[in-house]
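Lecture notes, unit on binding sites. The following record was shown on slide 14. It pairs a sequence with molybdenum atom.
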Amino acid sequence: MKDKLDKAVIVQEALKELPSSTRRLFLKRTLTLGGLSLLTGCTVTDEDSAERMLMKISRFNDNVQAWLFDPNKLAPTYPESMITKPFPFNAYYDIDKVPEVNGEEFKLEVSGLVADKHSWPLAELYQLPQTDQVTRHICVEGWSAIGKWGGVTFATFLKRIGADLTAKYVGFKCADDYYTSIDMPTALHAQTLLTFTYGGKTLPPEYGYPMKLRMPTKLGYKNPKHIVAIFVTNTYPGGYWEDKGYNWFGGV
Ligand SMILES: Nc1nc2c(c(=O)[nH]1)N[C@H]1C(S)=C(S)[C@@H](COP(=O)(O)O)O[C@H]1N2
Ligand SMILES: [Mo]
């Protein structure tokens, strides 16, 4: 990084870090280093350390992905015959450590930029209009699987609680130590569901009982299981893997 870097090389290196689909779209829109600086909010110079540069690229990547995200574009859906059996379990711990949640006592906490902060027992959540979809879950660890999840469209839930839909983030706290957060346009996407069922049956513990936010437009680690609290905020909430260096936007 000490050598005088040609501006074109900096842009090229930054682009290498982007997923190929993003890269293609990005190249189509022919953004320059000026644009890169605008998006990252800082000037990319040859004095930046490699780590700072990578941090900038990751934040740049978040911004580019957010910028390219088309709220009306639907992720593919599949026939039920293509459902992966058995559907894989994944968490940052082994299956014998899956959190046990008592559904009778459970109440979903809601906080932040919302008008109605009452906590939701499961029975009340089940009364919201339910829908299901068969989509592909893609994990960065190198596997993907098709499954069927059912629940309420998250936009419906956000409107029901009087969420500030102009806020930047929706954050999630889980019954394990997991947490994550998403951008509002994705939260409002038609295929973003707050799900209570898997394969037509109550979500089993290993897949995230009592609820999982299912987004076919985002990578697996952005899909929180065992959600116990939801909050709407303009303060960046990060996430379990995101704080360890995974890209925050995490689009597929
Ligand atoms: N609460 C919680 N949610 C989580 C995780 C986790 O460890 N804890 N892992 C994430 C990752 S990396 C993946 S791939 C999916 C796995 O979901 P599955 O077990 O239903 O396949 O859950 C995501 N959500
Ligand atoms: Mo994952």
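Take-home: Residues 2-68 form one domain.
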